[in-house]
């Protein structure tokens, strides 16, 4: 098998630009004058939410997002499945339903066979079909490093959105997928060892979790991807003007994640996540290794919901804001 992960400097969502750097880059795009044209922008860049939302008529809004990354696993078909599940997740995190996606493909055509690229696209198509989402073309470039993902457009009820700025004190926090994908993917990249549970988690759609959240009147949620649980929760708490308290013992992990951490398979993205939130973190007596797992850069992770979802663990709650502290960890 061609080891696709060896053709990339990073892997999956761990290759994202660090959150602090990214916020500096886009700072000039926030609060710009709304252009004349159809629709009303309901969710934009202001709070770094999962997708953009534009109301186009009463009761109907468009949800738009794009996501792509370098190979996170060596199997081309699985990489395609993971990348599209991850792209669709942004729509589900906002409470929307994906309608159509277009492929985004970068490929080193003189280094890797195009047959592998076809397998990547086939994997993406299969997951989109599972989601009931059309795939209609896309864009490709010749690139020294392989990358794949999708730009997705969905629909939502503008009166039933799930946003990251709508959290309120006293609401429980639920996580719908276990953590640990990042350290397992780092081990896979270094050793070639395959972790079927990690692949299964990354290719599981967040559609059912999103629907259950909407049925229970949830108005605040995000998904957990490259900035880790702590990074995405920090953004949610900051946008909502609250502090998030996390019970570290309640957070679920994939089998093998702690062993991978103990053996040093920690991505640079995970360490940057922790460094970014540390000034806003009350870690108490929580060990550094535990904090690294909580900051682990996930790829196609679960939803983090301000509310309870049957069958999923409650990992903490939102509490009144503490000065300068968005995250409190109970060891």
Describe the structure.
The chain is of the alpha+beta class. Helices cover 32% and strands 24% of the residues. The protein has helices at 19-26, 76-93, 114-130, 181-191, 196-203, 207-215, 228-240, 257-262, 268-277, 288-294, and strands at 40-43, 52-57, 60-69, 97-107, 134-142, 147-156, 172-175, 221-223, 242-247, 281-282, 303-306, 314-320, 327-330. A seven-stranded mixed β-sheet has the order 8-11-7-12-9-13-10, sandwiched between helices. A hairpin with an 8-residue loop joins β1 (40-43) and β2 (52-57). α2 packs parallel to α3 (114-130) and α7 runs parallel beside α9 (268-277). It is globular and about 55 Å long. The model has no long low-confidence stretch (mean pLDDT 94).
Key features of this structure:
alpha+beta; 6-stranded mixed β-sheet; 331 residues; globular; 10 helices; 7-stranded mixed β-sheet
Topology:
Layout: H1 19-26, E1 40-43, E2 52-57, E3 60-69, H2 76-93, E4 97-107, H3 114-130, E5 134-142, E6 147-156, E7 172-175, H4 181-191, H5 196-203, H6 207-215, E8 221-223, H7 228-240, E9 242-247, H8 257-262, H9 268-277, E10 281-282, H10 288-294, E11 303-306, E12 314-320, E13 327-330
Parallel strand pairs: 4-5, 9-13, 10-13
Antiparallel strand pairs: 1-2, 2-3, 3-6, 4-6, 7-11, 7-12, 8-11, 9-12
């Amino acid at each position: 098998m061609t080891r696709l992960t060896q053709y990339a400097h990073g892997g999956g969502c761990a290759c994202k630009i660090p959150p602090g750097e990214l916020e500096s880059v886009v700072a000039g795009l926030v609060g710009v004058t709304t252009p004349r044209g159809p629709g009303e922008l309901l969710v934009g860049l202001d709070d770094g939410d999962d997708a953009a939302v534009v109301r186009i008529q009463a009761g109907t809004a468009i949800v738009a997002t794009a996501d792509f990354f370098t190979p996170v696993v060596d199997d081309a078909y699985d990489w395609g499945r993971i990348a599209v599940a991850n792209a669709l997740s942004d729509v589900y995190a906002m409470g929307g339903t994906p309608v159509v996606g277009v492929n985004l493909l970068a490929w080193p055509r003189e280094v890797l066979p195009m047959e592998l690229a076809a397998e990547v696209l086939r994997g993406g198509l299969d997951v989109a079909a599972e989601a009931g989402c059309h795939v209609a073309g896309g864009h490709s470039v010749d690139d020294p490093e392989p990358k794949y993902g999708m730009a997705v457009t969905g629909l939502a009820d503008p009166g039933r959105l799930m946003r990251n700025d709508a959290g309120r004190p006293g609401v429980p926090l639920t996580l719908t997928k276990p953590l640990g994908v990042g350290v397992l993917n780092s081990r896979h990249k270094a050793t070639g060892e395959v972790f079927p549970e990690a692949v299964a988690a990354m290719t599981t759609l967040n559609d059912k979790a999103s629907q259950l959240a909407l049925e229970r009147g949830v108005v605040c949620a995000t998904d957990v991807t490259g900035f880790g649980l702590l990074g995405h929760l920090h953004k949610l708490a900051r946008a909502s003007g609250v502090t998030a308290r996390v019970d570290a013992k309640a957070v679920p992990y994939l089998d093998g994640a702690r062993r991978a951490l103990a053996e040093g398979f920690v991505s640079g993205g995970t360490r940057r996540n922790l460094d970014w939130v540390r000034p806003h973190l009350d870690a108490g007596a929580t060990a550094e290794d535990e904090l690294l797992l909580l900051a682990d850069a996930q790829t196609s992770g679960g939803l983090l919901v301000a509310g309870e979802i049957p069958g999923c663990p409650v990992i903490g709650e939102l509490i009144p804001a503490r000065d300068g502290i968005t995250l409190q960890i109970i060891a």
